[in-house]
Amino acid sequence: ATADMAKTNGPSNNISNPVNPYATTPMISLTIQAIFKMIFSGQIGVPLLLLIVLSPIVSIVLPLLNLLGNNTISLVYNIIRTSLQEVVGAPMQYATYPKHLEYPNVPLDDIMRKIDGVPPLNYWFKFSKILGVVGAVTDTAAGLEASGVKDTDPSTYDNYNKLFTDNGTAPNSKYPTPPYVPDHWEEDAEFARQFLNGVNPVMVEVVSDVSGQLSNEIVSFFKTTKVAGESVDLGALAKANRLLYVDYEGLDALNKHPHQAYPQAYNNKNFTDDETVLSRVGKEPRYFESPIIVLQLDEKREKLQVLGVQLERTPGAQIYTSENTEANKWLFIKTAVAAADSQYHEWVTHLGKTHYTMEPHIVAIHNTLRKTNHKIYPFLAPMCRDTLLLNWAARLTLAEFGPDSFGDKMTSVGVGQYMQLIKKYWEDYDFFKSGAADEELEGRGFSPDVEFPGYRYRTDSLKLWDIYGTFATDYVNEVYASDAEVAADADLQSWATETSDPTRGAVKGFPTKFTDKKILVKTLQTLFWICSGFHAAVNFSQYDFYAYQANKPLGFRAPVSDWPDATGDKDWIFENGMPHMAEAKQGIATARVLTYQSHQTIDRLDEFFGETGSQAYNTFKENLQVMSDEIDARSANDLAANGPVYEYLKPCNVPSSIDI
User: Rounded to whole angstroms, how far apart are CA atoms 198 and 345?
Assistant: First the structure.
C-alpha cells in the first residue's frame, strides 16, 4: 500500500494486482515508456523532461529514505509515479476501504470504491483556487481572532453570538453572520422548516401507512392527545398527504453510544476529568439520539408544524411535544434532534451520497471515455473536476482513519461509525432509484400528485432535473443518429462494463450496457444531478446552518437524560451540551472553507462545448436563466415578508462538479 494511504486508511486493498510502489524496476519501466510515448507524440516539454531525468534517481533514493518513515517523501514519490502512469496511459486503479481499527469486525470492502493512491495531477486544484482557499482560511482565522472569543472561554449563549462580531461590537469584518438562522433557531417553525429547506432536505418522508411507518408509541399517543386543543387524526392527515415524518433509525443500530470522541484504537491517551477545558476538547464522550419526528403540513401546504418527537426506541418510550414539555427542555430536545441530523447530513447525505458515490464514476470515466477522447466525454468532463483530490484529502484529514481525526473529535458518532452508516446506505443503493432526483423524491413519498409548494428544495431540484434532462437529450441527439449507433459504440459499452463490474467500479444499478439513447440520456442526467445540483443543495448550505453551531451541533456533550428538571435553562444547554468554544470556532472555519464559491458553475461551461454540443449548451443556458429569474422573483417575495430565501439551486450557485 502506498504510505500516504497506509497512514490514514490502512492497506489500500487494490482491486487489481498491486505493484510495490517502492520497487525500482516499475518506476524505471514507467519512465522508459513515458520517454518513448512523448518522443513519438512530440510532447516533450522542459517540466516533463526534468521529471523523466529525476525519476530514476528518485526511484532508487526514496526506498531508502522511506525507511525513516517520511510520509512527505512517500507522497512526492507517489505523485511522480501517478504522473508517469498518466503519461503512459495506464488506467487508474480501484481500491476498497479497510476496516476501521475501532470496529475490527465490521468489513468495509463492500461499500463504494475509491481511487487507489494519489489522484493524477490534472485532477488537482488550479493554483488560483488554492490561493483563494488559503485566503478564505486566513480571513476566517483573522475574524475568529478579532471576535475576542478564546478557545478556553466557557460555552455560553453570549460567546456563541460574540463569534460573529469584532470583539462584541460591530459585525465581524472577515466573515458574515449566517442569514436568518441565529435569530430564529429556537423557534418551532424554523426547526420544522429546516427539514424541508435546510442543509439536509432529503430525510423527510410522506406518511402513507400510519401503522407501518410510525412507531406504536406515536400512534397510541396521538389517539388520546390533542395539539393546540384539537384532536390529531393521523389517518386523515396521511390520506390528505399532510402527515410527514423523519426517522434516524440508523443511529440506533450503532453500538457505541455515547461514542468516545478520542478513540483508544488510534489515540493512546486517557481523558481525565481534571484536565483543563482546552485539553478536554475532542476527548469527551459524545452523545447522539436516534429520534423520530412527526410533522403536520398546514392546509395551505406551505409550512410544517412539529407534532411530536420520540427519542428512545424502547417500548412505551415518551413522546415529547411543545405542550407537554417545559420550554427549555423542549429546546434541548430539538437541539438533540438537530445533532442527530448533523451526523446523517455530514457523513451520509453529503460525504456518502455525493463525494464517495461519484468517485468510482470518475475513475471509470477516466479509464474509458477520457482515454479515447470519446464524443460523450465533453458532456462528462465538467463533472469530474477536483473531486478525486478532495476525497483523497478528506481521507487524510476530516474523515481520517487515524489519530486526532477531525471526524472523531468534532462529531458525535465518530469516523468508524459514520462509515457504518455509509455501509448501510450502500447496501440498499441503486444508481437510478437513489441518484435520480425524481425517483429519489418519489421514494420518500413525494410523487407528482403531492402538492407541496413550501418544499423549495423539491421544487427547484425537479426544475433543474428536467433542465438537465433536456440538455442530455439534445447532446445525445447531436452525437448519435439512432439507438443502434449507441448500442454499437464499443467505447460506450466499455464505460458501462467498467462502472457496473463488481470487481471494478461496482456501482449497483448502473446500466451494464447502453442499448438506446433513452438509457444513455437518463444516465448522463443522473450523474449531472448527483455531482452538481444535489451536492450544491447539501454542501453550499452548510455555512448558513452550521456556522452558528447552536443550530446544528456536530458533537453533543450531554444526553437528554441528563436534563436537570429543577434547574435546567438555556445556559445549561450551552454549558453542558453544546460544543466547546474551540469547536464552535472550528465549525465556522470548516463551514467557511467547505462553502468556498466555485468558479465553474453550470452556467459558465462554454469552454467544454465548442464544435460539439454548443447548440445544446446554449439552450441549456437559456433554460437556466428562466429558472434563475423565477428564483429571484420568489426570493424578492420572501424577503418582503421577512422570511428566509432558498437559492442553493440557483444556477449561478451550482458548480458542475464536486469541487469543494
Answer: 10
Give dist(CA 411, CA 267) in Å, integer: 16
Residue 138's H or E segment, with its range, is helix 127-146
3-state DSSP percent of the chain in helix, strand and coil, to 5: 55, 5, 40
Rounded distance between C-alpha atoms, residue 231 and residue 42, angstroms: 80
**Which grid cell sits at 518?**
433513452
Which of residues 29 and 330 earns the better pLDDT score? 330
Packed helices 357-365 and 490-500: angle between N→C axes, nearest 10 degrees:
150
Percent of the chain scoring above 70 in pLDDT: 85
- DSSP label of 531: I
* Residues making up the chain, counted from first to last: 660
CB 244 within 8 A of CB 205: yes
Measure the CA–CA gap between 152 and 188, rounded to whole angstroms.
Answer: 32
Please, what is the average pLDDT of the chain? 88
Count CA within 13 A, CB hemisphere, residue 207. 29
Cis (ω within 30 of 0) for the bond into 258? yes
* C-beta contacts of 61-67 below 8 A and 24+ residues apart: 62/22, 63/22, 63/24, 66/3, 66/22
Provide the pLDDT for residue 23. 38
pTM (2 d.p.): 0.89
* Cβ within 8 Å of residue 172, ≥6 positions away: 143, 146, 147, 163, 164, 165, 166
DSSP string, 437-467: HHHHHHHTT--TT---TT-HHHHHHHHHHHH
Taking a C-beta distance cutoff of 8 angstroms, is the pair 551, 181 a contact? Answer: yes
pLDDT digits (tens, 9 = 90+) for 555-573: 999 999 999 988 889 999 9
d(CA 385, CA 602): 13
Q: Is 137 exposed, middle or buried (CB count within 10 Å of its CB: 0-12, 13-18, 19+)?
A: middle
Using the 8-state DSSP alphabet, how is residue 485 labeled? H
CA distances from 386 to 124, 346, 370, 656 (A): 6, 19, 15, 11
Query: Nearest CA to 551 among 12, 217, 161?
Result: 161
Closest by Cα among 439, 444, 437 to 459? 437
Alpha carbon 602 to its chain's center: 19
Distance (Å, rounded) from C-alpha 262 to C-alpha 255?
A: 16
| Cell 410533522 sits on residue | 295
Whether residue 189 contacts residue 322, with contact meaning beta carbons closer than 8 Å, is answered with: no
Query: From start to end of 157-238, where are the E strands?
Result: 205-206, 226-227, 230-231
Residue with cell 526511484: 59
Neighbours of 53 (CB within 10 A): 11
Beta-carbon contacts of 446 under 8 Å, excluding residues fewer than 6 positions away, are 206, 452, 455, 458
Instruction: Specify burial of residue 424 (Cβ count, 10 A radius: 0-12, 13-18, 19+).
Output: middle
User: Which one-letter DSSP state was computed for residue 172?
Assistant: P
Neighbours of 390 (CB within 10 A): 22
Predicted confidence (pLDDT) at residue 589 exceeds the cutoff of 50: yes
How are beta strands 319-320 and 304-310 bridged, if at all? antiparallel
